[in-house]
Amino acid sequence: MNWISVRFLLIVSELAGLETQALDFVLAFPQADLDVPVFMEIPPGIEIGDGINKRAYVIELKSSLYGLKQSSANWYDCLKKGLERRGFVESNADPWVFMKKGMIILTYVDDCILIANSKELLDQFIYSLANGIEKFEFTDEGPMDKYLGVEIEKLKGNEFILRQPFLIQRILQALNVHEDTYNKRDVPVIGPLLSRDEKRGEKKT
């Protein structure tokens, strides 16, 4: 998924005052059918009878499992077909964005943002997911205020801020930088960041 899509759709939804809803599919990969037959050895802890050599048997999977190399692709195909049955079309710019009149869905594996111009349209779609032929299992996370670590803080009027506090904290920890040891700035740095660039500009003039 392209992060430009995430930021753009989050901003559009806020500016246009659109209805939003967040969904989290429960154990998404096992909800998808396998594309090819897959067999596995009998796992430890499962007994098939006294005196029977488990190594002489294999079991056939009936659905995808986490850890299979094709599980992610199988889930994507399952979700895509489900959305296409409901009239959605895959975006040419980002295959994880699906659109139809009045509604856009942004997906990231098992997390989805629903953006629509009416609450009724959102409710109808959510009902169809739960009661359609696929019987998708998911949790309704309610109106969206964060997505994939991006938090949306509403200010006065139409103003809002997009933050990524957890990503920033992970970067600081990876660099072994503590909050009390670095200088905080209220505004971005203005002007050349490197003295070498500054000197190079002087030579050209």
User: CA-to-CA gap between the ends?
Assistant: 44 Å
Sequence of strands across the biggest β-sheet:
4-5-6-7-1-8
Count structural domains. Answer: 2
Main sheet specs: 6 strands, antiparallel
The coarse overall form would be: flat
Structural class by helix and strand composition: alpha+beta
Binned, the helix content reads 25-40%
Q: How many β strands by DSSP?
A: 11
| Mean pLDDT over the full residue set | 79
Radius of gyration: 24 Å
* Percent range for β-strand residues: 15-25%
Q: Can you tell me about this structure?
A:
This protein is α+β, with helices and mostly antiparallel strands and 205 residues long. The protein has two domains: 131 residues, Alpha-Beta Plaits (2-Layer Sandwich), CATH 3.30.70; 45 residues, no CATH class. Helices cover 30% and strands 23% of the residues. It contains five helices and eleven strands. The strands form three sheets. It has a six-stranded antiparallel β-sheet with strand order 4-5-6-7-1-8, sandwiched between helices. The mean pLDDT is 79.
